[in-house]
Amino acid sequence: MTMTLSGGVLGPRQQCNPWSTTVHDNPGVPGRRVSLGKGPMILRTPGSRLHDGSTGRIPGRYPQVVLTISFPAAAFATNCYVLATGPGEECLVVDPGIGVEPQLQGVLTEHRLRPTAVLLTHGHVDHLYSVTPVCGGDTAAYIHEDDRYRLDDPIALLDRGLVAMLEQQFGQQATWKPPERVVTVRDRDTLALAGLDLTVLHAPGHTEGSVMFTLPTVPDQLREQTGATATCVSGDVLFAGSIGRSDLPGGDPAAMERSLRDVVLPLPDDMLVLPGHGAVTMIAHERASNPYLQNL
Ligand SMILES: [Zn+2]
Ligand SMILES: [Zn+2]
Engineering a disulfide at 63: which of 34, 46, 76, 213 sits with its beta carbon 3.0 to 4.6 angstroms away? Predict the structure, then answer.
């Protein structure tokens, strides 16, 4: 299980994000921004927590291992993340977007992972289109209470231009069926799922119920390169060099500014960011160079 990292590479998925305030990144900015590259990427992480369970390991004697797999959906290049303590374990699926099912199933089969929850950073269709088939009848979808209504019919909430883009990329008329089990979360909720500890940070502005999930662990191969000690799955709140749009229905520029100032900026410099679109970055790098984080 290896992965290749390349510094500052602007992948094709960065360039086709209709949800970003700016579609182009700052390719000239030097720094520690790193890219997961193309295709599924696997990051194994010795973390700070302890692993226990059916493998027979003894609590307190082995570090937690986090398996993080990232791949962009074919449509809108929305990043889907799979988080687990290791192969053969339960896992979390974050933001299963449009058309991810075959690739996701391949990842789950290859690593013998069992989804125990699906986490949604927000209720936009490019982040949750596959939530219902991925959840099946048993697995719950987690979403902030303020975006809960979007699960009723996320396609109806899109403007016509985005629906047209969606159907063009999807290749057929978009249809929708809500997941059977939904758990709503709130700011500062802590979740213990699949052996992982996550904290919910409500950061409205892109949508009413946009959240980021933080974890006290870092994928190992990014730890050395970045010096990160924790991870933030940032959804469409924060991207490398940009932020999510706040001019779509449910968006709120003033709320976005508050979220950036009061939720994003207080995050520690050494926190790795896994965004909803585009390349991985670090809070320190964004604090220093992201134009939307200046003068708040
Ligand atoms: Zn979005
Ligand atoms: Zn998005």
Answer: 46
What is the pairing mode between strands 90-94 and 79-84? antiparallel
Query: pLDDT, tens digit, for every residue of 83-121?
Result: 988 889 999 999 999 889 999 999 999 999 999 999 999
Q: Which ligand is nearest to the CA of 245?
A: 1
CA 244 – ligand 2 centroid, Å: 8
Q: What are the structural domain ranges in the chain? A: 13-293
CATH code at 13-293: 3.60.15.10
Place of tokens 């662990």: 217
> What is the overall mean pLDDT for the chain?
80
pTM, 2 dp: 0.82
